[in-house]
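Before a computer can learn anything about folding, someone has to put a protein's shape into writing. The outcome of that step, for a single protein, is printed below:
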Amino acid sequence: MKERSSISPDTVVDEIMRKWPATVAVVLSYKMLCVGCPIGTFHTVTEACHEHQINETDFLADLVSAVRASG
């Protein structure tokens, strides 16, 4: 059984992509360059959304949806 999503605003972006590979497509769809970026290893969702001027609520919802759809 796959682990349930526990993505929060304080979760590190790199951790999300490693734990749930389906979220990589979400990150890319928002035109975020977090995939392979060294900053992604310590940027939280909140920090990344602020940096990229992305709506955090929408981004989190899309991440969770991707995790649910993959499992």
